[in-house]
Design a protein that fits this description.
Radius of gyration: 31 Å
Number of strands: 32
Helix content: 25-40%
CATH class of the largest domain: Mainly Alpha
Mean pLDDT: 77
Strand order of the largest sheet: 1-2-3-4-6-5
CATH topology of the largest domain: Transferase(Phosphotransferase), domain 1
CATH superfamily of the largest domain: Transferase(Phosphotransferase) domain 1
Low-confidence stretches: 36-59, 193-201, 320-374, 379-409, 431-447
Strand content: 15-25%
Number of domains: 4
Shape: globular
CATH architecture of the largest domain: Orthogonal Bundle
Distance between the termini: 76 Å
Largest sheet: 6 strands, antiparallel
Length: 703
């Protein structure tokens, strides 16, 4: 039935191609994107018919569109939030967040259009591989925490973090970094209330935070908790509270039970316990959690994956829990009582369905939130609102006689109030009579609307990601471009190339004022890169796993947001084309141009001698053996290229790939052949380039 809708238009710029999946709040479709002139018709309700003109798609090709269920379009409040949150969602840019391209309001359709991410989800990864080694699991969730930290900085929470909503930009392989893309931030911002306090539940029982279950509200700490649940699952193959019982039972364990311990090192378990704390205030921030996970990933790089963990026979209670399951109607349980709390019968730990005491049974007999049919599926369920009993003062006011009035309202006060009303009325009448009524109101001159646009590049092999946000100020006649550079597993430095063309055809290259970096005109005779309006940025130091921003301001005039969007796309495309030019020789802009590293060794070496190793850069035009990145054993300072893409020698590590026939120094930089071997390989890591291997070579005796 759904597939029969293939080919239907979605707004003015999209067309449905294929149904990808369905969820609690809507369907996900693959859509085609066509750049077109977008017109819109305000139907009188403030909603835009079709794709908003100032949110035209930034790219041609395909995208993903989440179509919310039709009943959402009938909810005037939700539609209002949908439009109100639009600017927040479009500006939410980070290398680990799926980009929201557009929000469409069209008749009975509400849709969020996002980038299409091809590598599958972490749920698919778990189904295919089972538990991951600690290094991969920790690195993956560190990137999720990076995305959450960026969103939380903009006061946006996710509310439904789980493996299904964490996508990969490319097929999984061990050691993969920089591929995480967290999706569905838009659903949390649109379907849920901005205040994060609801009379219903949006989330997934196996990943819900204790405060969401007990109080119906959740914020940034709730996202940290859900990511901690996902880390537990990546390490063990199961969520901490999955087991027998209903979905309500599973969710209830988040409030009352402690997670079963895993057979992992003490520091790793301590970090896991901190993000799974019952107290939101005790959890680290997303940014702090990301740093902690990366440190642990480096410390436990060799820790193998655990065997899949089975559910325990029972769950241990937390000490003196002090919350309630929100949504229970007024009844025998007091507001400070946990249904099935300390008076639960033995053997019912973590299972409210098994509560045996009279008090617990009475509390659990009250209405419970319906959490859906599956613990791993997102649910959106109404919950009965608890109405607080009237206070004694309010009850007294309701039963007071009609003649009752406050003590302060004396006859004198009432007389002065009446006199004030008469004077104000006379003043208003006088103004109406005296002011001329036939002079036309002066029209305020209008200027073109301010506009914004965003663009994001695919992560480069060096680990560099670039997000560009443009903001046009028609009053000042300028456009400001904020360029966010992010690095993955290795620090990166400039020079970096940015092309900022003229806003109008025929104009010369505009003057640019740079903030956060030193910008000088690109010199083709020096860099070998020939491009109009190119700038070389120096002083840009991006830490591993971090991000820095640079701002460019230039004079410009744009008619609308579509023109600004097209100009920003053209600037990014010109930069990408210049740095990917196969005819360019030389080592300029290595963080943007380096595509790979070749590990070169002699075809034959002698035992008990150091192995000569050369790291050769690979550019778009091929390997450059005349200008190596690094040579081992090294002499002198490392090349500037190595500093730019790996932070220097700290980013280089060699490893034995020959079963003990090679010895590597403690700093990982010098390799010595030990014993005779007919065919060996040397493994290497250079910055963001991991799992490198040399061609086979032999180790022989001196004879």
């Amino acid at each position: 039935m759904a597939q029969s809708r293939s080919g239907e238009a979605l707004g003015a710029s999209y067309r449905l191609i294929e149904l990808i999946g369905t969820g609690a709040v809507g369907e996900v479709w693959r859509v085609s994107v066509a750049r077109a002139e977008v017109t819109h018709d305000d139907g009188g309700d403030g909603a835009v018919d079709g794709s908003p003109a100032d949110a035209a798609p930034a790219d041609s090709g395909e995208a993903a569109a989440k179509l919310l269920k039709p009943e959402h379009a009938d909810d005037a409040g939700l539609v209002e939030r949908f439009v109100r949150e639009r600017s927040v969602l479009l500006s939410l840019r980070h290398p680990s967040i799926v980009r929201v391209r557009d929000l469409v309001v069209e008749g009975d359709r509400l849709a969020i259009v996002m980038d299409l991410v091809p590598g599958g989800s972490v749920r698919d990864l778990l189904a295919a591989t089972g538990p991951l080694p600690a290094r991969d699991a920790l690195t993956l969730v560190a990137e999720v925490f990076d995305a959450l930290a960026a969103a939380h900085a903009r006061q946006v929470t996710h509310r439904d973090v789980k493996p299904d909503n964490v996508l990969l930009s490319e097929p999984w392989r061990p050691g993969l970094t920089g591929a995480v893309r967290v999706s569905d931030f838009g659903i949390a911002s649109v379907v849920d209330e901005k205040l994060r306090q609801t009379t219903g539940l949006l989330g997934t029982p196996q990943y819900m935070s204790p405060e969401l279950i007990s109080q119906g509200r959740s914020g940034g700490p709730g996202d940290v908790y859900a990511t901690g649940v996902m880390l537990y699952e990546l390490l063990s193959g199961r969520t901490p509270f999955a087991g027998p019982g209903t979905d309500f039972t599973v969710a209830y364990r988040h409030v009352t039970s402690t997670p079963p311990p895993l057979d992992v090192p003490a520091d790793l378990w301590a970090a896991l316990e901190s993000v799974l704390s019952k107290d939101p205030a005790a959890r680290p921030s997303a940014a702090d959690a990301a740093s902690s996970m990366r440190r642990l990933a480096a410390a436990h790089a060799e820790l193998p994956a655990l065997a899949p963990v089975v559910a325990p026979e029972g769950f241990d209670d937390v000490e003196r829990p002090a919350t309630i399951v929100r949504g229970a109607a007024a009844g025998s349980a007091s507001p400070d009582t946990i249904p099935g709390g300390a008076s639960r019968s033995p053997g019912a730990a973590g299972d409210p369905d098994a509560a045996g005491s009279d008090g617990a049974a009475a509390a659990l007999a009250e209405p419970r939130p319906d959490l859906g049919t599956g613990g791993s599926a997102t649910i959106v369920r109404p919950m009965p609102r608890r109405v607080a009993p009237p206070t004694r003062a309010a009850a007294a006011a309701e039963t007071a006689t009609p003649g009752w009035r406050p003590v302060w309202l004396t006859n004198k006060v009432a007389a002065f109030a009446a006199l004030g009303v008469v004077l104000i009325a006379a003043l208003v009448i006088g103004l109406v009579v005296l002011l001329p009524g036939d002079s036309p109101a002066e029209e305020t001159p209008t200027s073109p609307d301010a506009a914004t646009a965003s663009q994001r590049d695919t992560a480069l092999p060096t680990g560099l990601s670039i997000v560009r946000d443009a903001s046009y100020d028609p009053d000042a006649g300028t456009v400001s471009v904020t360029i966010a550079y992010a690095a993955q597993s290795a620090p990166l430095t400039g020079p970096l190339l940015e092309v900022l063309p003229a806003p109008a055809d025929g104009d010369g290259c505009p003057p640019v004022t740079w903030t956060g970096a030193t910008g000088t005109r690109n010199q083709p005779s020096v860099t070998g890169v020939t491009v109009d309006c190119g700038w070389a940025l120096t002083g840009v130091d991006v830490p591993a796993g971090g991000q820095v921003e640079v701002e460019a301001t230039l004079p410009a005039e744009f008619t609308d947001a579509t023109a600004l969007d097209a100009w920003l796309d053209a600037a990014a495309a010109a930069t990408t084309e210049a740095t990917g030019d196969e005819t360019v020789t030389g080592s300029a802009y290595p963080a943007q141009r380096l595509l790979g590293v070749r590990v070169v060794t002699p075809s034959r070496t002698v035992s008990q001698t150091p192995l000569t190793v050369t790291l050769v850069p690979v550019w778009a035009g091929g390997p450059d053996e005349l200008n190596p990145l690094y040579s081992s054993p090294s002499t002198g300072s490392p090349s500037q290229m190595l500093v730019d893409v790996a932070g220097g020698e700290e980013g280089v590590r060699f490893a034995d790939g020959c079963g003990g026939a090679l010895a590597v120094s403690s700093d990982g930089l010098v390799v010595t052949a030990l014993s005779i071997a007919p065919a060996c390989v040397l493994r290497a890591t250079v910055g963001n380039f991991t799992n490198l291997e040399s061609s086979p070579f032999s180790i022989t005796t001196r004879d």
